[in-house]
User: Which sequence fits this backbone?
């Protein structure tokens, strides 16, 4: 059984930074492509970023390109989302997710991901 545990959320002013972490427990991280998603109040959950098993390929939603960076440390079984230049519209619950079926590619669709964390709240004040 895989468990994903997010941490690092909080309250930050616009223009500030946060780094989210997602610890993978129960299985080795290298077996999964990983993604970050977010859900703002009153909105559907949306794709934010994803990283391949090797870490060699990443993908971002347009609204965070140049501001967010996804990375992984397979030795620590942890995936990160570095968020810089935060905006009030980045306010949401952020979830990490694991895709066990994909070997080389990465996907944006939620349906591709088998395991999900419970989320961590990020609030950006103006």
Assistant:
């Amino acid at each position: 059984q895989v468990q994903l545990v997010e941490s690092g959320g909080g309250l930050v002013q616009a223009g500030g930074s946060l780094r989210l972490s997602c610890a993978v427990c129960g299985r080795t991280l290298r077996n999964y492509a990983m993604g970050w998603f977010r859900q703002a109040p009153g909105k559907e959950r949306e794709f934010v970023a994803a990283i391949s098993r090797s870490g060699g390929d990443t993908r971002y939603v347009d609204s965070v390109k140049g501001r967010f960076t996804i990375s992984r440390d397979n030795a620590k079984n942890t995936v990160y989302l570095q968020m810089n230049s935060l905006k009030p519209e980045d306010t949401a619950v952020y979830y990490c997710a694991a895709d066990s079926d994909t070997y080389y590619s990465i996907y944006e669709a939620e349906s591709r991901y088998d395991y999900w964390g419970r989320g961590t709240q990020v609030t950006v004040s103006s």
